[in-house]
Amino acid sequence: MDGAGAFAQLLPLILIFAIMYFLLIRPQQKRVKEHQKMVEALRRGDQVVTQGGLIGKVTKVKDDNEIEVEVSDNVRVRVVKNTVAQVLNKTEPSGS
C-alpha cells in the first residue's frame, strides 16, 4: 500500500515532465536542427537576415563559422553563420 501511495504522489510530476517535453523541449530541438540545416546550406548569392536585423547578400562563405555579407554597395561585413536568422532568397545551385 505504501508503494502505491508514493507512486500516486509522483504521477503528477511525471505527467508534468512528459507534457513539458512534448510541448517545449521537442519542438525546440526540431527548430535547432532546421536552423542548423539552413546555416549549413548557405552559399554565395543568398539574401539573408541576421539576428541583429541586417539584411544583405552573402558574397563569400569564408570557413565553417563565418560568412561575408554585403549590406550595401561595397559595404561588406563579416558575420558568424549561426547569427543568420532567415534566408530570404535562395540561389539555385549552378549546373556546371
From TrEMBL:
One of its GO terms (cellular component) is plasma membrane. InterPro entries: Preprotein_translocase_YajC. GO terms for biological process: protein transport. NCBIfam families: yajC. Belongs to the YajC family. Part of the SecDF-YidC-YajC translocase complex. The SecDF-YidC-YajC translocase forms a supercomplex with SecYEG, called the holo-translocon (HTL). PANTHER family: SEC TRANSLOCON ACCESSORY COMPLEX SUBUNIT YAJC. This is Sec translocon accessory complex subunit YajC. The gene is yajC.
